[in-house]
Amino acid sequence: MSGADEAERRRSGSLDRPSRGRFGVARFWLAIIIALAGCAVSVVVWQALLAHERQLARMRFKLDAEQRIRSIERRVRNDTEAVHFLSAFFAGSEKVTRDQFRTFARPVLSRYRAIQALEWLPRVVHDERAEHEAALVEEGFPDYRILDAASDGSLLPAPHRDEYFPVTFIEPLETNRSILGLDRLSTEVCRAAIRRARETGRVTVSGYVGLAHEPDNPPGLLVLGPLYREEARNDAAAQGEKRLLGMVAVVMRIDTMVEEALSYFPSAGIDVTILDETAKAPRHVLYASSSPQDSGASKPDEPSATAGREARQHAVDMELPGRRWLIRCTPGDRYVVQGASQLPLVALVSGLAISVLLALYVHGLQSRTAVVERLAERLEDTNTWLQREIAEREQAEAALLRTQDELELRVRQRTAELERSNADLEQFAYVVSHDLQEPLRMVTSYLQLLAKRYGGHLDEKADTYIEFAVDGARRMQQLICDLLSYSRVGRRGGAFGPVDFSQVADEAIENLRATIEEHRGEVIHKGLPAVRGDHTQLVQLTQNLISNALKFHGEEPPRVCIAAEKSEGEWTFSVRDNGIGIDRKHQQRVFKIFQRLHTRDQYPGTGVGLAICERIVDRHQGRIWFDSEVGRGTTFYFTLPDATGPQEPARRA
């Protein structure tokens, strides 16, 4: 094998070439360039997707904000319409009593949840103040006085003033009894709204009004409608001072009104802020959904840490009678998180990953290319060595084939010789057993004749010798018959065909009827199948096994049971008895010819019966074995092909 070692050394040396390092550096830089280019493209795509996502987010936010603003506008205009209903109610009645006012107010309050109270503010000049207070006391309000709202929220008797607009009717009265008699001119916001309503003769919305009588002091507003005498309605500007009867007022809670308008939308994290732009600086925050505000103070619109979100806000001016509101929607952190898409980040990560993988793939591909080139050089050297090796192996194979042909020829010759030897041996056994019977019958006949004629005439020893000779002749005759039967199994077997094994068992039992009755035995079988085989030999097989069970029985009468069980392509038969059993150490001797486990004095026989059984089963391509326990009986098992089994009997060499 020195040539192989030399080729291996050449292949190893081919790896160390001068160009190896230079090509490795070039492959390294090419992979880096591909990775950098892929990362650059990924970053550009990421930036483009981010810009697209921002544009979509702005459009989506604008649409959501517009829907909320329009809903707030509709709700505010719808709720402020209640003042027109109240004005029409007073204008259509010559005199409105408190009970009538209560009856009118109930359905209005139940319909408009944002309305906190409906009020009637009659115009009372100073000269009529005492008469007005006395009338309310007489009506059932003993503590009634025209009151002013102090800066600390307390109510004090109103000072001298040319006129008053006290709260005379208010519903619901139970929750607003504390402000009954409050002069609405006592606060700057209400005074400005009343003045504007008197000047224009139309409905006017007040600025920010703190509802101090509510537990949480929520922000509110008043919607005021002037009420004139009939002849002065068309000339309110000229005769308003003399003809003005008073003001109808609707007190509204701003947060309830806005939240009811926003209840139709899912909570998407959009902060809504409403500013009163009519008020002088600082502007009042009428409503803010992002963080609770102090309803009793003015909140300036100052920049904060949310300047980035404020830059994406959407604001719309809303015109109301006498006021202008700014409704501003700002996306909160939760809205940004809900609307954010992971597509840009996924695209960036995917692009970077693909770039790195592509660079690694190119680097690996080039490395494999170099390896393939080196392997090709190795392969060229190896091919030369293999050609020599193939030539040597072809020569060795040719020699091996010649040797194999010689061995096959020898095997065929030996097999033919063995077959001839077996045939001669079988023929010899048949001839010997057949030809010996005639002289043996003659010897037996004359011995029996001698015993019959001279029995009792000779001495006792002579009679004993004659008896021994007759018995030996009989046993020799039985041995020859058994040997003849054993030799005929292979030579005179019949053709295979379907055989009903129940009929086989019945014939065997009938042949042994006398022996069964002699031993008071019992042989049973049930549901035996049809098989393929030689009917005569199967009867002999079954008869030998039953006879064996009858012969080797114990103290109890013999009981034999024949059964069968189906397996793959064959039937397994069992012949079970309750006899003396067989020791396991004799398992190899049972089926050998002329092998006996007991003396002739104990149990008669020649030791050929089970050997015949084995040969019959072997001819049917089956197996035979037994399972036994001394003193508890023996079960012989053998297998036979089913009715669709082999068509021709097996030939035994």
Write a short abstract of this structure.
This protein has 653 residues and is an alpha+beta fold. 52% of the residues lie in helices and 18% in strands. Among the domains are: 83-254, CHASE domain (Beta-Lactamase); 265-341, no CATH class; 493-641, Heat Shock Protein 90 (2-Layer Sandwich).
Task: Describe the protein's architecture and organization.
By secondary structure, the protein is α+β, with helices and mostly antiparallel strands. Strands 1, 6, 7, 8, 9 and 10 form a six-stranded antiparallel sheet that branches. Strands 16-18-19-21-20 form a five-stranded mixed sheet. The chain has helices at residues 2-13, 20-80, 82-91, 98-111, 129-139, 173-176, 188-200, 236-243, 254-262, 307-310, 333-339, 343-454, 460-491, 501-511, 513-518, 535-551, 609-619; strands at 115-122, 124-125, 147-149, 155-157, 163-164, 169-171, 204-205, 209-210, 219-228, 244-253, 270-276, 284-288, 314-320, 323-331, 497-500, 522-525, 530-533, 559-567, 570-577, 624-629, 633-641.
Instruction: Please identify the structural class as seen in this structure.
Output: alpha+beta
CATH class of the domain at 83-254: Alpha Beta
Instruction: Please state the oligomeric state of the protein chains shown.
Output: single chain
Spatial gap, N to C terminus: 48 Å
Task: Name the overall outline.
Answer: elongated
The biggest beta sheet reads: 6 strands, antiparallel
Runs in which pLDDT lies below 50 for 5 or more consecutive residues are 13-19, 236-240, 291-308, 647-653
Bin the helical content: 40-55%
CATH architecture of the domain at 83-254: 2-Layer Sandwich
What amount of the residues lies in strands?
A: 15-25%
Q: Could you name the CATH homologous superfamily of the domain at 83-254? A: CHASE domain
Would you report the number of β strands?
21
